[in-house]
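User: Once you have settled down, look closely at the record that follows, taking as long as you need, and be ready to discuss the fold:
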Amino acid sequence: MKKSLLLSISFLIVMFFSACTDNSMEPNENNMILSITNNANFDFYSIEISIDKITGGMSNADGSKIQKGDTFRKEYINQEDFDLEGEATFEFVLIGKEENRIPLKEITLELMTNKEYLFEITGDSIKEADLKRVK
């Protein structure tokens, strides 16, 4: 039990630090990457992504709003407690001003290593926010 808890905590820490914007990150035989570009005409401050019991986020280190045109990349690493095989449903939530949470659609993806999935956030207001798969 303790080993499982320690592995889960370690994985969450890795997920947290991997959320930093790193455009040099490339998909390889041990990972997959989600890339999300902001093409929206409204302000928000972070993107939360949940899969199964794992939740992580992407934001600017200084807490500033995500600018239109910014792209954030999140790496998922193939590990003992997180297997990049099969299907998984990802839940996306935008975090707006004053921690307002705006749920976007859930997207089911075929998990596989050496793969990058591209998405964009669009809309003219946070209430009209939409997440679209680009590739």
Remarks:
- The helical segments are 2-18.
- The chain has a mean pLDDT of 85.
- The chain has one domain: 2-133.
